Amino acid sequence: MLIRFRNIHDYWFKGLLSNQKACYVRNNHGRGQQHCMCLSCIGRTNELIRPFSEASWAKFIECVEKWKSLDGLEKEVAMNFSPECQDNIGFHVKCYRRFTDKCRIAQAVTRIEKGRPRLPVPHVVEDECNDSIDKETEPPAKRSLRSATGSHSISGGKRRSVHVLPPMCLICRSVKRMNDRKTGKRIEEKLTSCETGESLLKAAEVRQDEELLVQIRGQDLVSIEVKYHKSCYRNYTRCLEKPYEKKDEADSDVMYTPSFKILCTNVIEKRIFDGGEVLRMTALKNLFVKIISDTEHYDASTYRNTAFKKRLVKKYGDRLQFIRPHFHECELVLAQTKSRSQVLNITPESESEDEIEQCMQESTASSSSEVRDIFHAAMQLHDVIQSADFVSEWPPKAEDVTLQRCQEVVPVKLFNFLAWCTGASTDFCPENYVKVSDDAQNKLLSIGQDLIYLSSKGRKTTPKHVALGMAVRHLTGSSSILGLLNGLGHCTSHSQILQHDTALAIQQLQGNGIPPGFQEGVFTTLVWDNNDFGEETLTGKGTTHNTNGIILQRMQDEVSSETQGSSTSNAMVNIAKSKQRTLTLPPSDIIEYHGKPRHGPAPPGYDCFNCCV
Length: 613
What we know:
Elements: E1 2-4, E2 11-13, E3 50-51, H1 54-68, H2 73-80, E4 90-91, H3 93-99, H4 102-113, E5 152-153, E6 159-160, E7 177-179, E8 186-188, E9 192-193, H5 198-207, H6 210-216, E10 227-228, H7 230-236, H8 249-254, H9 257-274, E11 279-280, H10 281-295, H11 305-316, E12 320-323, E13 332-335, H12 340-345, H13 353-386, H14 403-409, H15 412-422, H16 438-455, H17 463-476, H18 479-487, H19 494-510, E14 524-533, E15 544-553, H20 561-569, H21 608-612
C-alpha cells in the first residue's frame, strides 16, 4: 500500500513493525519510489535506503520462502511481499540483517517443531520509524522485594543504607577526569575516603555552603562514608589557608637602623663620596654585618645583598652607581661623579704585574701560615693520642666495655677537638669534656677510639672494637662481615675475637664454679628451668634450647673472715694472653647408675628392722 503526500519527492513504503502494523521510511535520494521493511524500530532512524543487488535480492527471496512456512512478524512481511516491485524497493541494513538472520530462522523452526507459538506483540501506534531492537529478547523486569524498601540503589544493584552517602564526590557531585602523568591519557580521578573531616566542615562553614552543611553538620563523616576528589578537596579547603601577607618594605628598612647610619656616615659619605673609593658590593655588605655585630650584637650574616642594595638605592638614589665589569664578577659601588672608564682602570683586572705578584705572595704566605698552624695542631693531637695509655685486663669482661670506660679511654683534648671540628659544641673548655648531646657523644667517642686504634696499628684494643666484634660474631657468626668491619677499622680481627672467646672459657674453667659476687658457705636459693624456643624448621633441627637460672643470697652486714676468704677465692682470675683460638674440654667420667626398686616410707608404728629380722 502506497501513500502519497503533498511533496511529490517524498515517497514512503508500508511495512510491518514489531510494535505497529505499518511503517513508512522516507526515501532521501529522490530516485523514484523505494521501500524498506522495518521489522522492529523503537527510535528514530536516519539510515539511508540502499538498493538491492543481485546477491542480496537472491538472499532476500530465499528467506521470504522460508518465513512463509514459519510464524511471527517476519511471516506477515513474507506473505505481503510481491516480487514484481524489485526495481522500486530498497532496504535498511539493520532490517535486512534481521530478516535474513539464520539464527532467527532456526529458532523459529525449533519453536514450531516443539509447538510453542510466538507470543503476540501489543499494538502500539507511532508516528516515526524507529531503530530495530528486539524487545522479545529483553529479560523481564526484576521483581522488587520488600526488604529493599528504604534503601538507596546505586550502580551495580548493591543495597546501601539510608545513612550512608552514595559513592560520589560530595563537593562536585560529578565524575571528574584528569591527565595521567605516565601515559598522558584522560582517566577518571579516583575518589578518596574522608578520614577526619574537620577541615571540610570548617571550609563549608566559612563558605556558608548550606547545601553541603545539611549533609555533614553533626555527622561522623567517616561513618557516613564521605568521599571526594583530592583536587576538589584541595580547592574547597583553600580558604582555610593563612593568607599571604606581603612584607612592607618600610619594615625591612627599619632593621639595623643605627648600624646603617654608621655605615652611611663612615663609609658611604667619607670613603666613597669624599675619598672617591670604589668598593665591591660584598665587601660593603661585610662591613655592614660587622658594624651590626659590634654595635647591636646581632648576627646579620644572612642579610641578603639584594635587600642591602635596595636600601642604598632608596637612600641615595642616583648619587650611587653600581657597575658590574664582567658578568661573573661582583658589583662595584662608586659615586656618580666617576665614569665607567675610570672604574675599569682601577679594577683588579688592570693592576700591574708587580702588584699582582705581591698579592699572590701575600695570599701564599697567609695560606702557608694557616697550613703550618694546622700542622702544629695535628702534631699536638698525635702526642695526645700516643700518650693515651690504658691498662686492659685479659680477657676483657662486661665491665670493661661500658660507656664510662670509653670516656676514660678517649683523652679530653681529642674529644673536645672532634666536638669543635664537627660543630657539636662551640664552648671553650680546656680541662673537661665539653657538653654535647647523648647521640653526638656516642659518635664522638666512637671516632676517638677509631683514631686510637689506627694510631696504635691495632695494638691498643679499645672497648668499642672488642664489644662490636664480639656482638657481630654472636649475632651473625660470619667471619666475612667481621673481616669487612676490621678492614674499615671498626672492630678487631676475627682471629682476635676467637682468642677473646677462648680466654673467657678458660677463665671459667679455672674458677671454682661460684659466680663473682656470691659467697661460699651462705644459704643460697637456686631456681633453674629450661627455656625452649620452638622454631618451625623442615627437619626439626636448629631449634633453640636454653637453661636459665637465678641465684639468690641474703646480704649480710657482718661477714666472717672465713666467708670473706671464700668470697675472694671465687673472683675471676686474670690469665696470660695467648693466641689460643680453640679449647679442648677436660675429660669427665660419668658414674654409672643402676636402677633399683622404689621404696616408700614405712607406715607409722612399723618397725622395719624387727620385721626384717
